[in-house]
Amino acid sequence: MNDIKNIAINRRTFVKSTGSAIILGAAGIPIDSTTKVNVNKPIKIKRVDSNFEREPLNPYRFKGSAITDSWQSVALLETESGIKKIGLATQGVLWSDARVAASHSESAGNSLMYAMTEYALQIIKGTVFTNPIDLLEQILPEVLAYGKKITGISDLRKTFALNSLVAVDNAAWLVYAAENNISNFNTLIPDQYRKGLSYKHTKVASIPSFSVGSNPQLIKAAAENGYFIMKLKTGSAGTQKEMLEKDIEFLTQVHKAIGHFETPYTKSGKLPYYFDPNGRYEQKETLLRFIDHANKIGALEQIALIEEPLPESNESYVGNLGVRIAADESAHTVEETARRIEQGYSAIVVKSIAKTLSMTLKIIDYANEKNVPCFCADLTVNPILVDWNKTIAARLLPFPGMEIGLQETNGHQYYKRWETLMTYHPKSNASWIKSQNGVYKIDDTFYDQSGGIFDSPQHYMDLFSN
Fold first, then answer.
1. pTM score, two decimals?
2. What are the C-alpha distances in Å from 266 to residues 237, 304, 368, 399?
3. In the chain, what are the domains?
4. What are φ and ψ of residue 349, in 5° steps?
């Protein structure tokens, strides 16, 4: 527990850049920029605003429930010098705290999260900040306290508050970049966080996600179309006994359908399985029975990881299960990430599009210090946010056993208006936007243009035309 205490005492802050450091990525390729950045420049927020759009989904089933309506929230920040930027977010109420989803209608749950976004904007209106990471640290406790009050949940998960702050944090990074004349993501990353983001992938896997109860033939069809790693939601509805029976049957059918496929992107040459029960396994013993069945049918060696199988309250040690266990929504902050690593979690799922870029940089930095691999997962976000996530995925060190970067992207499976949303992307015709045979091809233009994240999306800017 010493690591956790040290983290609490020694809060990480920006290190002033001298503009002289060059970090080498894969094959010694320099990925840093020598642009000088005055990170201590005070930035005053003169005006704030917010808005949102509702996007219908095909039902996405997990955590014993489903989402059918995705709110795209937008936060606007205008500085005293006249710089105006917007940040986007996709709200994930069921994912970030299922209790809020269970006790409210889908619209009401989204309204509560949106209210927290607006509350955060009102907090920072008229204030001065020097960097987004410090800004997030300052407002997170107050926003979380407000969330506890309006939801009536005294132990509301930090991830719920972080999700509500994504649009605000993204807008803060963009005004910070503009105020400091930064136009490239490599330069935007503070010096002390660059080591964990020092790689330069030329390919990033596009990982689709299949909800609980999906037909294994759909998964087989995805494999036939080039997708080599799929996120498979388990944790079926029902009692723990019913859940386990359904999950075991699902595993059996999936292995029969795709277990024989081959891929050039893994060291074993076989398709890796990525299971996500979303905390539905109440006991470690139940999870062991799932793993034992995988071993019995010859599927265990193909399980790359099981993500967040146990509820956050279960602090069982999971480093002795014979399979890599990853932490996702329970790794809210660096403190919780440290605790999970001590409990044997050997991978961290990072989501700059769900827990803010500011918190994600800190989590990656800590995990890298502990030699724990990270990879990017989705929150069923819109195409613009896919590239916010991709800017991280393209720079993370390779995941063990894999040859390319990893990023879950499932929006194309669930948004009913995905093709329309694609047109909102400022770089909608770029080569890296659409995956080809299950892989995003990342070239120099992606790095030069930072995935388009610095370009203002006109559709969402127009929400503030008045």
1. 0.90
2. 32, 10, 22, 10
3. 43-188 (3.30.390.10), 191-464 (3.20.20.120)
4. -85, 125
Q: Is the pLDDT of residue 237 over 60?
A: yes
DSSP state letters, 213-241: T--HHHHHHHHHTT---EEEE---SS-HH
Euclidean distance between CA atoms 96 and 347, whole angstroms:
19
Residues 6+ apart with CB under 8 A from 100: 93, 109, 112, 113, 151, 153, 156, 160
* Burial of 242 per CB tally in 10 Å (0-12, 13-18, 19+): exposed
Q: What is the pLDDT of residues 152-206, one digit of tens each?
A: 999 999 999 999 999 999 999 999 999 999 999 999 999 999 999 999 999 999 9
92 vs 107, 118, 263, CA distance in Å? 12, 16, 32
Q: What are phi and psi of 71, to 5 degrees?
A: -90, 125
- Residue 257 near residue 220 (C-beta atoms within 8 A): yes
Q: DSSP label at 269?
A: S
Write phi, then psi, for 92 (nearest 5 degrees): -125, 75
Residues in the chain, total: 466
| Beta carbons within 8 Å of 414's beta carbon, 6+ residues apart | 57, 58, 60, 70, 380
How many H-runs (helices) and E-runs (strands) does the chain carry? 19, 14
- Angstrom CA distances, 301 to 210, 322, 327, stand at 21, 9, 20
Q: In terms of DSSP bridges, do strands 128-129 and 43-62 run parallel, antiparallel, or are they unpaired?
A: antiparallel
